[in-house]
Amino acid sequence: MNEPDVILKMLGGSEREPRTIAVVGLSDDPTRPSHSVSAYMQRHGYRIIPVNPGVSHVLGERAYPALRDLPDSPDIVNVFRLPRYIPAIVDEMIDCGMQNLWVQLGIRNEPAAIKAEDAGISVVMDRCILIEHANLFRNSARVA
Questions:
Q1: Domain total for the chain?
Q2: Which residues of 123-143 are buried (b: 16+ CB within 10 A; e: fewer)?
Q3: For residue 89, what is the domain's CATH number?
Q4: Does residue 87 belong to any structural domain of this protein?
Q5: Which of these, 91, 111, 119, 129, is most buried using a 10 Å CB contact count?
Q6: Count of CB atoms within 10 A of residue 88's CB?
Q7: Which residues form the domain of 37?
Q8: In a domain, 133, yes or no
Q9: Could you tell me the CA-to-CA distances from 76 to 7, 24, 44, 111, 121 in Å, in that order?
Q10: How far apart are CA 57 and CA 64, in angstroms?
Q11: Which tens digit of pLDDT belongs to each residue from 104-113?
Q12: pLDDT in tens, 4-14
C-alpha cells in the first residue's frame, strides 16, 4: 500500500487518455474537498465519474448511485467516504473487477486495504490524489 511505483502507475498515465476516476462520495457542493479535488483532476485531463446516489450531475458529468452502475470500469476508484464504508466499496470493486483504489487523506481502513490487495487491487490510502498529482507533475506541462 502507498508504494511510490503504485502512485506513479495510477497517476503517471497510460497509453490511453484521458484516464477515468470514479469518485465515490463526490459532492455537488463546490466548498467540499471532494468537489475541489475532483475539479483539479478534471482540469488536468482526467475524466471524473461521480458516484453518489444523492446527485444527478457533478462537474458536468452524470452521477451514478454505485460503482456497479457505471457503464465502464474506471482506471481509479477515488473514495471520499468514512472508513466504515470502505469494506463495502472494496467488495463492490472486487465484484466489478476494478483494479485501483485510492482512499483520500485522513481516511484509513487497514482490513479493507488488506482485503483489496489480497484480491489484486492496488491500494493508495490516506493520501490526497491532488497533492500526489501536483508533486509528481509540478515540473510537467500537465500541471497548470
A1: 1
A2: bbbbbbbbebbeebbeeeeee
A3: 3.40.50.720
A4: yes
A5: 129
A6: 13
A7: 4-55+73-137
A8: yes
A9: 11, 11, 15, 20, 10
A10: 9
A11: 999 999 999 9
A12: 888 888 887 54
